Each structure stands twice: as C-alpha cells, then as structure tokens.
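Hypothesis: this fold can be encoded by more than one sequence.
Test: take the structure tokens below, design a sequence, compare later.
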C-alpha cells in the first residue's frame, strides 16, 4: 500500500469520525427521560437538589449568631466558596412529574464568624412545602354497571341449565410418587 493510499484511507476515516460523532451523541441529549416508540414521554425521574430551608428555620436565625449555631439550625451549606469564605448559600430545587418546579434560595453573610446579613426568597413553611409536593390526585370514577330492563330484553332468557356439560369424575385419593422408589 502506498503512502498516498494510506493517507487517503485515514483521511476518509477521520472525516467519518468527525461527522458521525455528533450524530451518535444526539441520543445522549436527555439521559433522564425515556421515550416510547411514538416519541411520548413515559417517565421522568424526580430530581431533588440542595438543602430545603423552611420559613421556621429562617425565623430561628438571628443577627450576631456564630457560624456553628447557624450550621446547627440549617445544616451544611450547599455552596461555600473558598473565594467567598464569608458567604454561605443554601439552594433547593425539586422537579417532579405533574408538579411545577420549585426553587428556593437563602444566602447568609458572616463578618468575623458572626452572622451579619440574610437574603432569602419567600420560603414556605414545612406544612406548605409538603402540600406543594403533592400534585393533584386524579380520582378514578368506575363506570356505572347497571343494566336497564331494555338492555336485558335484548338477550334471550334461559331458565334451564345447559345439558351439554358432562358430570365431573371424582378426583383420585392418592397420586403416584414424583421420583422413582430406588432413591
């Protein structure tokens, strides 16, 4: 094989790889969803990220609290930057099927390890949050299964038992062994 042929083959393979890779990755666009053959969304898993902070926890925070006491109330912050050691961020997001996405944020600033500022969204109470998690439940109403007299007249009445049914033979009192007796 000449150098020109090997160069041409490697160029064609490289071009095929370059063009084919983006098309092969298009199936990876949404790894969290499954689709049926018609393209309809079948299942989307629940995604919960962050620390939920309730309004009750927010109300327990007081200016001048030490970091350790704030950590006891709220838990470890989701984001604590090395570059912003005086700031803690608590972020919570949840996405569930049938329920609107929810997102809450609470930022705390410290001055010399003492709480100096609080910025937060309108945080729900624990009870309000639980009510938001539960989506609308669709109640199933079974169909009404009552035949009217008119519907019953459509079918002939049969007062006698069918005579084509043969009487059943009695069941045996004992059965043969499942394994040979030699064992």
């Amino acid at each position: 094989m000449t150098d020109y042929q090997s160069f041409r083959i490697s160029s064609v393979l490289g071009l095929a790889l370059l063009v084919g890779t983006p098309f092969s990755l298009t199936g990876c666009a949404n790894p969290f969803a499954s689709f049926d053959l018609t393209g309809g969304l079948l299942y989307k898993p629940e995604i919960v990220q962050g620390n939920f902070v309730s309004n009750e926890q927010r109300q327990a925070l007081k200016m001048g609290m030490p970091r350790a006491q704030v950590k006891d109330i709220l838990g470890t912050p989701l984001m604590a930057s090395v570059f912003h050691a005086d700031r803690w961020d608590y972020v919570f997001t949840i996405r569930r099927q049938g329920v609107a996405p929810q997102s809450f944020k609470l930022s705390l600033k410290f001055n010399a390890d003492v709480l100096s500022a609080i910025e937060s969204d309108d945080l729900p109470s624990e009870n309000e949050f639980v009510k938001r998690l539960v989506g609308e439940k669709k109640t199933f109403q079974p169909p009404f299964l009552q035949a009217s007299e008119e519907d019953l007249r459509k079918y002939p009445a049969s007062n006698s038992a069918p005579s084509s049914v043969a009487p059943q033979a009695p069941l045996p009192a004992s059965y043969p062994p499942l394994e040979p007796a030699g064992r």
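The two ends are 71 Å apart (CA to CA). Helices lie at 3-25, 55-60, 67-74, 126-133, 149-153.
Hypothesis status: open.
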